[in-house]
């Protein structure tokens, strides 16, 4: 299969990036900040009632964080290290939510001392830790959701608890002097089935009603997590369609009087802005008659492309060689045999692709630099430029 560049990037921006990139040693990522700026505006347009908490793990660069801060974003933070980073940029503690349900008590205390007052949880032990280390804070409980088969990068199972436990935790939160504030879920990253939000919102509605009736607790917030799409090879609906449908689901369950709605986008804001540039290191076949061609390039699973694990995320790859395509196995440069990006899914690459040619991995702005290893086989972490 062949990639049409225009489906992913406008030519002008691509050429600007390509020119900038021509004299650098590969691999490196170039991120176009204007694309992120536009994606943020599009999300706000789609969800005018929503508050955005950017999931910092998607791309924690100062350039991205500053841009989003200046656009008025809030931040979903997973560790004290991310916390220190955003505070250093002047983000206020009221703009921060500690969204990781797995955390040390002394780190909760550190968040509290810096002024953070909103915490996610999904277990009793964590809730009790929060009550001690961050007294009086707002609590939202993450519930388990379905949808792991239609998300390209599922985030279920490890996080969240069953509905009954979520309600018990919110009742306990009140007993412990905390503020039982809301419910969160994450339907899975790159979630292609919009219906996953319908099911999750339906569960939230039941919790809101039962807590009110049975315990007199009035919840005020729904955190709908991330999961919004980036533009990879496997097609998705447009963000606008996601927004329209999800808004309809919310209105069906909650009417016009919506609770506070939080969104935690990572991938959908950042991915499309990035182009990872690599170089072909070797093209080979395993025997004189082998039909299968191997293309080894200087970026791999350990230098930013870990989301190719199980070939989950299929990044569009573009080269400027024209002509006939032939299937290829695409692998990275390290001495680990897990470092194969695509083997089952057949990528067509130009038959005349040769050592030294550049490969452009599109839609790679998110979950690449932050996943890159430090020095496996001596290879440095993925370099990045922000333009
Ligand atoms: C990773 C993560 C997100 C971002 O998800 P995307 O699918 O990248 O938008 C949001 N919320 C939480 C709690 C996360 O862990």
TrEMBL record:
<dbReference type="InterPro" id="IPR022653">
    <property type="entry name" value="De-COase2_pyr-phos_BS"/>
</dbReference>
<protein>
    <recommendedName>
        <fullName>ornithine decarboxylase</fullName>
        <ecNumber>4.1.1.17</ecNumber>
    </recommendedName>
</protein>
<dbReference type="InterPro" id="IPR009006">
    <property type="entry name" value="Ala_racemase/Decarboxylase_C"/>
</dbReference>
<dbReference type="GO" id="GO:0004586">
    <property type="term" value="F:ornithine decarboxylase activity"/>
</dbReference>
<dbReference type="InterPro" id="IPR029066">
    <property type="entry name" value="PLP-binding_barrel"/>
</dbReference>
<comment type="pathway">
    <text>Amine and polyamine biosynthesis; putrescine biosynthesis via L-ornithine pathway; putrescine from L-ornithine: step 1/1.</text>
</comment>
<dbReference type="InterPro" id="IPR022657">
    <property type="entry name" value="De-COase2_CS"/>
</dbReference>
<dbReference type="InterPro" id="IPR002433">
    <property type="entry name" value="Orn_de-COase"/>
</dbReference>
<comment type="similarity">
    <text>Belongs to the Orn/Lys/Arg decarboxylase class-II family.</text>
</comment>
<dbReference type="Pfam" id="PF02784">
    <property type="entry name" value="Orn_Arg_deC_N"/>
</dbReference>
<dbReference type="InterPro" id="IPR000183">
    <property type="entry name" value="Orn/DAP/Arg_de-COase"/>
</dbReference>
<feature type="domain" description="Orn/DAP/Arg decarboxylase 2 N-terminal">
    <location>
        <begin position="34"/>
        <end position="271"/>
    </location>
</feature>
<feature type="modified residue" description="N6-(pyridoxal phosphate)lysine">
    <location>
        <position position="57"/>
    </location>
</feature>
<dbReference type="InterPro" id="IPR022644">
    <property type="entry name" value="De-COase2_N"/>
</dbReference>
<dbReference type="GO" id="GO:0033387">
    <property type="term" value="P:putrescine biosynthetic process from arginine, via ornithine"/>
</dbReference>
<keyword id="KW-0663">Pyridoxal phosphate</keyword>
<keyword id="KW-0456">Lyase</keyword>
<feature type="active site" description="Proton donor">
    <location>
        <position position="335"/>
    </location>
</feature>
<dbReference type="GO" id="GO:0005737">
    <property type="term" value="C:cytoplasm"/>
</dbReference>
């Amino acid at each position: 299969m062949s990639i049409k560049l225009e489906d992913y990037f406008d030519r002008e921006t691509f050429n600007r990036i390509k020119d900038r990139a021509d004299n650098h040693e590969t691999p490196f990522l170039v991120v176009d900040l204007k694309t992120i700026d536009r994606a943020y505006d599009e999300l706000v347009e789609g969800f005018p009632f929503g508050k955005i908490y950017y999931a910092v793990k998607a791309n924690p660069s100062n350039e991205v964080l500053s841009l989003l801060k200046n656009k008025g974003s809030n931040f979903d933070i997973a560790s004290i290290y991310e916390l220190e980073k955003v505070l250093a940029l002047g983000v206020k503690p009221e703009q921060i939510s500690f969204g990781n349900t797995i955390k040390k008590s002394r780190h909760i205390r550190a968040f509290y001392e810096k002024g953070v007052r909103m915490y996610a949880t999904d277990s009793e032990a964590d809730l009790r830790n929060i009550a001690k280390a961050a007294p009086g804070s707002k609590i939202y409980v993450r519930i388990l959701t379905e949808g792991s088969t239609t998300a390209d990068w599922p985030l279920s199972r490890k996080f969240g608890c069953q509905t009954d436990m979520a309600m018990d935790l919110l009742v306990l939160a009140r007993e412990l002097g905390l503020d039982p504030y809301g419910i969160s879920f994450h339907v899975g990253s790159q979630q292609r089935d919009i219906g996953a939000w319908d099911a999750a919102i339906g569960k939230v509605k039941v919790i809101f009603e039962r807590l009110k009736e049975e315990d007199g607790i009035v919840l005020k917030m729904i955190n709908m997590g991330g999961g919004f799409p980036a533009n990879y090879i496997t097609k998705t609906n447009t963000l606008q369609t996601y927004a329209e449908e999800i808004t309809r689901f919310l209105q069906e369950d909650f009417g016009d009087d919506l609770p506070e709605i939080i969104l935690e986008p990572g991938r959908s804001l950042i991915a499309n802005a990035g182009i990872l540039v690599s170089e072909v290191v070797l093209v080979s076949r395993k025997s004189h008659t082998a039909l299968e061609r191997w293309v080894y390039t200087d970026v791999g699973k350990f230098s930013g492309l870990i989301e190719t694990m199980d070939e989950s995320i299929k990044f569009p790859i573009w080269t400027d060689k024209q002509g006939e395509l032939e299937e290829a196995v695409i692998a990275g440069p390290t001495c680990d045999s897990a470092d194969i990006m695509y083997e089952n899914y057949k990528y067509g690459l130009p038959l005349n692709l040769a050592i030294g040619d550049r490969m452009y991995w599109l839609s790679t702005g998110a979950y690449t630099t932050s996943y890159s290893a430090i020095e496996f086989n001596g290879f440095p972490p993925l370099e990045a430029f922000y333009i």
